[in-house]
Amino acid sequence: xxxxxxxxxxxxxxxxxxxxxxxxxxxxxxxxxxxxxxxxxxxxxxxxxxxxxxxxxxxxxxxxxxxxxxxxxxxxxxxxxxxxxxxxxxxxxxxxxxxxxxxxxxxxxxxxxxxxxxxxxxxxxxxxxxxxxxxxxxxxxxxxxxxxxxxxxxxxxxxxxxxxx
Length: 165
Prior knowledge:
This protein has four helices and two strands. By secondary structure, the protein is mainly α. It has a two-stranded antiparallel ribbon with strand order 1-2.
């Protein structure tokens, strides 16, 4: 694989987020080993059938490992186990509709004042006293804590308490 990739080649190479939680919590893996998590969201359509997705798994996994090997030579030589979850696996195993870990698409029509839906972007739900602060809330998924912070701000307002600055 040559770098940089052309536009047509980019479509076949996965973009991914790689984390290694064992750097900070070594008890997650056997001594001397690490666990890494790779997340990619742009390679397989979420509406693919289980069969079509299952047939793509080996090629997709190879593409992920080849990409990692490019940036970290021999990375794949140390892999002793993989777990590969397609959107339908995430939906089935984790009960997340459509396999969306962010509880919906992170597209422009689902952002800002339209997240999670128009008229519900203020962290309040239709049920009085029930607030939203998960991945479906603006600014969306990840482990930023921002939706929780923003929901807490709205709760304080509703309780008549001033915001902390």
